[in-house]
Predict the 3D structure of the following.
Amino acid sequence: MSTTIDSLADSQRRIEVPLRSALDRLDPHTRHCCGYHLGLWDPDGVPTGSMGKGIRPTLALLSARAAGAGDEIGVPAALACELIHNFSLLHDDVMDHDTERRHRTTAWAQFGIPAAILAGDALCSLASELLAEAPSSTAIWALRCVGASTRRLIAGQAADLDFETREDVSLVECLKMADDKTGALMACSASLGAVLADAPAELALGLADFGTHLGMAFQLSDDILGIWGNPERTGKPVLSDLRSRKKSVPVVYALQSDTDAGTRLKSLYFRPGELSETELSEAAELVETAGGREWTEQRADRELQEALAAIEALTIPAPIAHEFIALAYQLNHRDH
Amino acid sequence: MSTTIDSLADSQRRIEVPLRSALDRLDPHTRHCCGYHLGLWDPDGVPTGSMGKGIRPTLALLSARAAGAGDEIGVPAALACELIHNFSLLHDDVMDHDTERRHRTTAWAQFGIPAAILAGDALCSLASELLAEAPSSTAIWALRCVGASTRRLIAGQAADLDFETREDVSLVECLKMADDKTGALMACSASLGAVLADAPAELALGLADFGTHLGMAFQLSDDILGIWGNPERTGKPVLSDLRSRKKSVPVVYALQSDTDAGTRLKSLYFRPGELSETELSEAAELVETAGGREWTEQRADRELQEALAAIEALTIPAPIAHEFIALAYQLNHRDH
């Protein structure tokens, strides 16, 4: 849907200049690492055009517009969400030892762990600073929303790390982790512009509800792609989530399924040593046979439907509702 | 001076319960790592009594009282400063590979790097959250102060890391680094209670000025102790800063001194391989002969005098001025 692609591109245009100004507040080393991570330049500082999709800032800008506010409110909200998201990516890549993101070397792999830790710290702190400078009487509420979401991001990552060493992760725990790791900041992004615009609580809460379901749908689709996605499109190696023995939703569903396929998957997944290519393909088949793929796809669909219902329940201008809906569809039929 | 020791102990009493409540907002893994780092419990969760001195929260509580405000304002300011300080310690220990702090194993060495990164992130975010909840019409200004100080903390740590690989660090750069790494948060701590109490700008700025000089005096004394301190009292090995080839102020002064001792120090300091005990003692003597110790001690004295003058220039109740002054003396004649 061209409308949505436009709204992503449009939000990127609106936030790029203020994002660059925000980075200019940082010391040169930290600024350089942040700008590299954000895709503004390559390791030598040569400009590149490889910024992220900007889903969260787009949601935040839309949520300000939904509350009748302009960019003076939407942009600080959008920047705060984008900075918090990237702070978490910078630190997650260190913790997860990931060396590639968006087809580029990760910041820690390029500049070292200390630089990447400081860059993440700087983006986290800048997010609060920018919100505290917004021309709004409700900045303090926006800051509380961001604080609560950040705590949940951290809880989600802590759970994800904890799962690595456990064989008994339940589906409930796994869904809670996804909700914390992805849902919380999506809910914040989809409502922060409205909060900062002093919108009625009903509107802010409705938008947050949309974001929660959208985040969950998005994460579940991502879990599907992590096993069955086309590597050329996802930028990750084939069967990557199985290779790293990730406890994603389809896998946990299968492990807990009490089926023959689930039992066989358990013995494969929890044995020491790397899995061969044949074993990886077998594991993917076992997840599917045990019902993990179907359950996850259905749940993702349900979350998407609930997201759409949340938007439809709101009294907001039709063109803005349309953009939220188009964005939701786009994110859930993406193949990268 | 017993007054000061009382004021440190008193501030610890006032912040401990709200600090514990703040940690209770976190997921169990992150909470456990934060509480361990803060000295509330040992690795198994058994209560311990080894919290830090609490200089920053004491300053923040005093600054609220200086502006005529009570604990409802002083405590959130104190907690924010203590949390930001500990966020930076948690991450610095990871970056610097330090395995011991306050005679205990550092958090990353105990729980792993991911847990320590998340714990630091959580404390940084909690600091903003608590300030945003303070019953104050100027919380937004307090948040801006904390944001700006955090940026300078990060800049100081980035410079410190950069210095490790450079042989040409100037004294000006070195003093700037100390000001960013220690002065900025001390200035923030000494004024944040007043900012949050909506004090006149003159008072807030005067207190920040006090904190800046106090922080610098404190850091310079620390640099002296890092070379000539008594290991039993400092908790660090003898000559520790020389052993790790730290570019502290006395060392940089000596290296840049254009003296025979400075030249000899350079060839020792910049040669590959570990320094022997004899070489370490020689290096300490060379720093002293080149004038590094005397210059640093005199500069620390001057900073302390400027801190005291900043307090004396303010119109604040005499008992509070007395507490600030007593604290300043105590911090600068400490031998650990």
About this structure: The mean pLDDT of chain A is 94. Chain A has one domain: 2-332.
